[in-house]
Amino acid sequence: MLATAVGSYPGSDDRDYVEVVRLVFGELPDLPHVPELPGRGAIASITGRGVAVLSELGADLQPAGWRLTDAAGIDQRRARSLLAQDLDRVEEQAQGYAGAVKAQIVGPWTLAATVERPRGDKVLADHGARRELAQALAEGVVHHVADLRRRLPEVDRLVIQVDEPALATVLAAKVPTASGFGRHRAVDLPEASAALGWVLAAIEDAGAEPWVHSCAPGTPYALVRGAGARGLSVDLAMLVAADHDELARALEAGGTVALGVVPAVDPEPRPGEGQAVDAVERWLGMLGLDPDTVGDRLVVTPACGLAGASPVWVREALARVARAAREL
């Protein structure tokens, strides 16, 4: 059984990023990942990272957030520069590393719900715009995977985790309009699956393994699997009965499930040392799954990103998931 983390960490500058990279590769040697420090500003946020990867679509920062433009603005260029700089740090730390590595990228629906069209309001409001955005993200991910492969030539398993925290909100028509008085219409399930599928297929065609992560309640894991996800990353505490069944089917079909079982923010009181192991064992027992059969496709993680945790808890959380994976 492996251990990894979702992606984000506290920190506000480049020195923090270097320290986090060292921490990740030190504490999670079996499946380290490319860290994200959204505290460095909009260009380092989940949306900023996505804008940095987009192919042939310009964007820039406006007072209301990221907006598509005719050509790449200074902020999009800064986001791309920061991503390249961060990958330099990962490349330096990973010299000689020959195992598995994970990187994260925002999904097409979370991006459509957070980026505006050139004339205002979210891309989500326009069928053609959201299609164009998803296709630009899919094309950009191909180049991103190629860059990671070039930087990490000895890595034998590259996982790309597609973060879709807003997917459930998009499908439930709960994304507010620019005025704040209305809500965008729900996206049809076939369209939602198709756009996500373009990105996941691009990842697989580029030679990487596509996962989808969401720690939001109501995420449609059946739709995500149908779109082509080979791994599902979840917060165990947020699941409902149907979700458990879908995850069991994913494991039985040969997919990967990353279970978030360690708190993502400093808990009070601190859970017992064996809490993570107990949670995984109870889950497997509830579903009647044999640990010897599915254990090599299970991954232990914190419940969600660690950006809101203290540095002390970050270290402890990573140590806990690594220890739980070893014990399990």
The CATH topology name reads TIM Barrel
Structural category is alpha/beta
Q: Helical element count?
A: 12
Mean pLDDT: 96
Report how far the terminal alpha carbons are from each other.
Answer: 7 Å
How many domains? The number is 1
Strand order of the largest sheet: 1-9-8-7-6-5-4
Helix content: 40-55%
Text of the CATH class: Alpha Beta
CATH architectural type: Alpha-Beta Barrel
- The low-pLDDT segments are none
Name the quaternary structure: single chain
Strand content: 5-15%
The counted number of beta strands is 9
Radius of gyration: 19 Å
Order of helix and strand elements from N to C terminus: EHHEEHEHHEHHEHEHEHHEH
* Biggest sheet descriptor: 7 strands, parallel
The 3D shape can be described as: globular
Structure characterization notes:
By secondary structure, this protein is an alpha/beta fold. The protein has a single domain, classed as TIM Barrel (Alpha-Beta Barrel), CATH 3.20.20.210. It is 45% helix and 15% strand. It has twelve helices and nine strands. The strands form two sheets. The protein has a seven-stranded parallel beta sheet. A two-stranded antiparallel ribbon has the order 2-3. Helix 8 links the parallel strand 6 and strand 7.
